[in-house]
Known about the structure:
Two copies of one chain form a homodimer.
Chain A: H1 6-22, H2 28-35, H3 40-52, E1 56-57, E2 67-68, E3 75-80, E4 95-101, E5 113-117, E6 133-138, E7 147-152, E8 155-164, E9 167-171, E10 180-182, E11 186-197
Parallel strand pairs in A: 3-5
Antiparallel strand pairs in A: 1-2, 3-4, 5-6, 6-11, 7-8, 7-11, 8-9, 9-10
Chain B binds a DNA duplex (30 and 30 nucleotides) through helix 1 and helix 3.
Amino acid sequence: MEQLTPREKEIFDYITRQFEETGYSPSVRDIRAAMGIGSTATVYNYIEKLCDKGYLRKDASKSRSLRPVDDTPVYRVPVIGKVTAGSPIFAYEDNDGFVTFSPEGRRFNSSSLFALKVRGRSMINAGILDGDTVIVERCDVAYNGEIIVALIDDEATVKTFYAEDGKFRLQPENDEYEPIFTDHVRILGKVVASIRYY
Amino acid sequence: MEQLTPREKEIFDYITRQFEETGYSPSVRDIRAAMGIGSTATVYNYIEKLCDKGYLRKDASKSRSLRPVDDTPVYRVPVIGKVTAGSPIFAYEDNDGFVTFSPEGRRFNSSSLFALKVRGRSMINAGILDGDTVIVERCDVAYNGEIIVALIDDEATVKTFYAEDGKFRLQPENDEYEPIFTDHVRILGKVVASIRYY
DNA sequence: TCCGATTATAAACAAATGTTTTTATTATTA
DNA sequence: TAATAATAAAAACATTTGTTTATAATCGGA
């Protein structure tokens, strides 16, 4: 990312801070006043520079449409309550609220994420405890060793996935549990993160 | 929270969605157009209602200053790199970037949070694996059974805390590790959440 | 010393935007 | 049936706001 001049950085920092504090963008004149600048044109030029350099976004002629380009997106992920086979599992209405999740490095299609509260101790050796929240990316294929969410007997379950001899093995990560062998598995998605609150 | 009428909810949902998609608030006329309403006054009344009922915030006479009242705050938490005893541990400069964290239910003083990348397997029985990120709330006291971050030999370590017979026991959650007994412990904070990325 | 980058100003215009006032329809409820 | 809540409109007004144009001071490096 192209370097900012000292003054550009000052102005960028102000915009960012305002955005965080108020929840919306300062206007050109707000910036002018705060930075002790005499003319709106000066500010306007800075804004164009910051946009050109990739630090800001704005929509032309729209008031207060500035926003810092954020490289770590924040997703508001619906927590799915009960999962039932036939029904529209991912209907927006049938959720238990939301969790906020921001990944490291990668990006997701916002609508392809959902979350699940884990019940039971079948994955404790993988560090997924009862009550943990897993963030899941919807997909219908998986590779060996990936932790997935699958639909078993009308219930969503978290297991490690293996394809063997044309069949599937869903492996709990807990010696007290037995693996599930099946010819057919309906994969809801891959676990991309897990969160625990103390 | 006071109930919304059907139409109020439609309008609130539109504002929320716009906010998420564009990063800034729609104007009164944006809403008017999108909702198929003939007059800005109608929209204006709805906005006032939504503010009165506590669903929206706005600043008087400021364009595009609407924002949904968000009850789950999002914290941008600095990831502390190396921790050294005497030095200003929490200096902003010395960090490994940020993680975004939003708690369930409770609120924190934003400046009292920091994050740590866990190294080693000493807490695996508590579901904290090598590479996990723990979110820590700064504090200098703890109660028995709480998972804390303490300073041992100039290094930050995550352990379960116990005070016994006027001494302290820092308990690893892994049978291969021995507890640390000490007369004096410098507590950096309590673990309030842990996050793992796959 | 000249040049370019950085920082800055004044003045005006056009458009977008929030706000007020006054009035009306419809459906529900007492 | 009368009262009330929910929904809606028109028209104007006052500000706020983005944008353009033309001009200038300062400073470091070639």
